[in-house]
């Protein structure tokens, strides 16, 4: 049976996530219509080489907005809509991912903490909900506490991730202008794409926090009954 309290507590995060996803799609589509001199892959290569990171490989990856930097293998992967495309959206996203590679090379402390927290967050996100549901069905405070602890780890990861993502975007915009890849006038297109993406991280963080709040309310209510 669906619990109305779940939607009441999670409503702010769900609404923000829908709004953020819509904004990402709109800004991405708009910036994709603005031409750029370099492709996404060429942009990333230029920024990486300028930072002395010629050892970081760039590879295409399937999917849309699946772009990411893998610190374990030192590989920057760009989606089909970014890798070979010559537009402001591709340039901005590629520069953002290059920003993560530069963070890694410079020993950016929040990124180190985030990388250490990834396995715990993956476990919490995958197993946490099953443990929580089992705790509710079995009316087990122990399972509920374990499940809540799992989502606390996810929420902590999301909070750590925010400054990492904001810093990568800051580096991207700074380097794009400094290296003459885009002009200051063109920066507004990149700004809109990266700012919209930032709201998806904020929504994800809010969701993880409110999940913990929801189950703490349920745990408290269950203990009273």
UniProtKB/TrEMBL annotation:
Signal peptide range in chain numbering: none
Protein name (database record): Neutral zinc metallopeptidase
Keyword Transcription: no
Pfam families: Zn_peptidase_2
Keyword set includes Membrane: yes
Keywords from the UniProt entry: Membrane, Transmembrane, Transmembrane helix
Membrane spanning residue stretches: 116-135, 142-160, 196-217
């Amino acid at each position: 049976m669906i619990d109305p309290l779940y939607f009441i507590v999670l409503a702010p995060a769900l609404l923000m996530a829908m709004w953020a996803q819509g904004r990402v799609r709109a800004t991405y589509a708009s910036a994709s219509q603005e031409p750029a001199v370099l492709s996404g892959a060429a942009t990333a290569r230029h920024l990486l080489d300028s930072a002395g990171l010629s050892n970081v490989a760039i590879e295409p990856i399937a999917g849309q907005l699946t772009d990411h930097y893998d610190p374990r293998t030192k590989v920057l992967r760009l989606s089909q809509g970014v890798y070979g495309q010559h537009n402001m959206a591709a340039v901005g996203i590629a520069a953002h991912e290059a920003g993560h590679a530069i963070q890694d090379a410079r020993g950016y402390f929040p990124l180190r903490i985030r990388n250490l927290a990834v396995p715990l967050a993956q476990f919490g996100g995958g197993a946490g909900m099953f443990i929580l549901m089992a705790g509710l069905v079995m009316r087990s405070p122990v399972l509920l506490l374990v499940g809540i602890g799992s989502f606390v780890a996810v929420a902590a990861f999301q909070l750590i991730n925010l400054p990492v993502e904001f810093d990568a975007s800051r580096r991207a915009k700074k380097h794009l202008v400094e290296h003459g890849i885009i002009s200051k006038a063109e920066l507004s297109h990149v700004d809109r794409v990266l700012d919209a993406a930032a709201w998806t991280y904020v929504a994800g963080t809010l969701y993880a926090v409110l999940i913990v709040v929801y189950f703490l309310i349920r745990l408290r209510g269950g203990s009273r009954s």
